[in-house]
Amino acid sequence: QVELVESGGGLVQPGGSLRLSCAASGFYLDYTDIGWFRQAPGKEREGVSCININDGNTYYIDSVKGRFTIFRDNIKNTVYLQMNSLKPEDTGVYYCAGGSWVRSWWRSTEYDYWGRGTQVTVSS
Length: 124
Fold this sequence. Notes:
It is built from no helices and eleven strands. The protein is mainly beta and 124 residues long. Strands 2, 4, 5, 6, 9, 10 and 11 form a seven-stranded mixed beta sheet that branches. The chain has a four-stranded antiparallel beta sheet with strand order 1-3-8-7, with no helix packed on it. β5 (46-51) and β6 form a beta hairpin.
């Protein structure tokens, strides 16, 4: 059974950090492009970051560049999203998603597998 499970969300003050984890079971992450998406209340889901299996390249939405880092640990079969200098506008439910030959990484339709999400709240 293919499954993605996110963890690491929580409540953090502005300027703080969180590390989200996306653990896979039933398939190997080193054969899969992994994206992180988020959805704030009343807003559409948006692509935040992606790590590409073919070339190892990483991609970020402009609003998180320089603050977020995506990386993978193939031994643990886990992809992480390190989030620093968090802002209130980063608040939302964060989802990881897996897909093959992802081209438009920011599009949710490119991905085949989805986790259930983890809540991130940035507030003082």
